[in-house]
Amino acid sequence: MKSVKEIPAAKAASKAAASQPAARGYQRWMPTVMVVIFAGWVLGGLRPAPSKSPFDIADFGKLPVVMNGRVQPMDSVARNTLLLMRSKSTLAVEPEGEMSDMAKMFKTKRVPAIDWLLGVMTHPDAAEKQKIFRVDHPEVKSLLKLSENEKHFSFEQMRPQFPELMKEAQRISGLEEDAVTTPFEKGVMRIATALTTFNRMKNSLQPEDAKDFGAEVSLFEKTLPDGLIAAQKSQAKEEFKEEDLALLSQFFKRFGLLEEAAAILVVPPADPANKDGWANIGQSLKESVRTGEVSPAVRAYSKMAAAYANDKPTEFNIALADYRNNYLKGRFDRELRKGRDEAFFNVFEPFIKAVSVYLVAFLFACAYWVTLTPWLRVAAVRLTVLALIIHTFGLGFRMYLEGRPPVTSLYSSALFVGWGCVWLCLILERIFKNCIPVLVATVAGFVTLIIAHNLALDGDTLKLLQAVLDTNIWLATHVTVITLGYSSMFVAGLLAIIYVLLGFFTRNLHADHRKNLTRMVYGITCFATLFSFVGTVLGGIWADQSWGRFWGWDPKENGALMIVIWCAVVLHARWGGMIRERGLMAMALFGNVVTSFSWWGVNMLGVGLHSYGFMDGAFKWLSAFIVSQLALIAITLLPPGFWRSLKADAKSRAEVKDAEALAAAQKLRPQT
What we know:
By secondary structure, this protein is mainly alpha-helical. The protein has four domains: 18-47 and 349-419 and 433-460, no CATH class; 57-201, no CATH class; 213-311 and 323-334, no CATH class; 465-653. Helix content is 69%, strand content 3%. The protein has 27 helices and six strands. The protein has helices spanning 6-18, 26-44, 57-61, 74-86, 100-106, 113-122, 124-127, 138-143, 155-158, 162-173, 183-201, 213-235, 242-261, 281-291, 296-309, 313-328, 333-348, 350-371, 374-402, 410-432, 436-455, 472-505, 511-547, 555-575, 581-604, 618-636, 644-668; strands at residues 64-67, 70-73, 90-92, 110-112, 131-134, 152-154. Strand 1 and strand 2 (70-73) form a beta hairpin. Helix 18 (350-371) runs antiparallel to helix 21 (436-455), helix 19 runs parallel beside helix 21 (436-455) and helix 25 runs antiparallel to helix 26. It is elongated and about 140 Å long. The relative contact order is 0.07.
């Protein structure tokens, strides 16, 4: 048995060894190698893979258009439309059977969204056969007479029941605003919106029955002067050529139908200063009857549509380059830059890359706790920093694209909460150097980005702001500060989860670790109290300026107040000596419940001025999270005898006491 002096010395040596930044040999450079590998992978995404298509699809995807009230690239329109229909931004094409036309057209099994959208707009017959619509609700499947064993269906399969579906959708649309809709009714509205959008996309570049829209527009342009002369003479009751007027009337009627059907505003205004002057193809062609001139944008798009439909890549690329370089450039430079930058952001996908790096860093942090090998901790820290850099780049680029502060919706709040958690954890790791904060950081970064990814499945994440948020000064103050409060509370709660899992299920939570975790949770709770309180007060000032009252007991306001009150309760219980280590952890775990309800739960109530972020699918996940936290709290309250780490420490203390008693007895033994 070791002497009493040897035991603390061994612990000190072990602690010193674990705190070393790297060991000898390969362990010195392994963390750097791992970071370089993943940094190279991330930087490789800055240069998109070359397209196999002879058509310049990438540049077509950068063309600026207007949809949902904002300028965006055609690539974003394609991705958001496919997400609405299939919940994915790429399409898997079946190479055989009824999909053979689509597969032959794309020449690939994995189709990017922009390729798919071009196919819909120029090959509608083939696109209608593609199974792109996801239908999950069994009653919706029954209404549409679809197979219960499948989840993806084509427009062609649903066409026979389309009138019945729209009839049901109109009934649901007529319900009162505060009426509670069932999952079936929400499923009907979702698929009705998807089918309507698909129909409109088929007519966004040309009429879906067009054979050669470029030739059709050229014919219209040639006959337009004679038709206008005939129309003027007809009004003046003079002689005119009836065939000229009849042809103009025929074109006008056809373009009127296109105006009603088209979803995308692709034609820029004649005056670049007129930001609201964007039009769809049909609107622009009808306007040509008044002005006597066809927009160059219409000519370009009609040529591109005809060239793509007839498999003429050279003509497509020439029309695209001419439109971009000779019409848009110099007149719509800001829109061109916006389209190019957002298309790059879509392809680069920084948050997806950050998720991958967070996951690898998490594995390294877990490996460190299993082996206590120093270089694993260093690698975990550096990879977490790399992931945070990617995460920060993504947030900054979104702010640049939106021209707004970082939090404008539930989606962006998930991104920002995760970012704040990682920052706080890295600060803690800098202080304590025990890899526990890194473990929390990777979990927080990974989970919040996964939540954001699922929120993005509804479509456009850069859409126009809700009216309640459309004030930049308060977005930059109240919303950002209160979201940092959320981040702080979740960090404290995640640290408490680590405490419970390591302390109850393993013997690895030694006294020093428990002490450090307690200090971390206490410090972060103080930080959360400050930001939650300041953020709530700033929200009241915003409400006073926007709605004429500082406080209205709105559910979201009550949720923010709950966080402030709970933080105050935790701190007073700690200061008053009513709780110790495990009590603090139990209260931090309940802080997760309070914060998640304030962040998500109040939106699900469907009432109040802040209920703009409702999501059906989030309810079950929120409920599961709350149940898990209550279960952990129950574990925390169990007696120490149930905790493996506490039992191990008690045994160690008993051994130390025995060693001390033995040493004392030896000193008292008489010398012989």
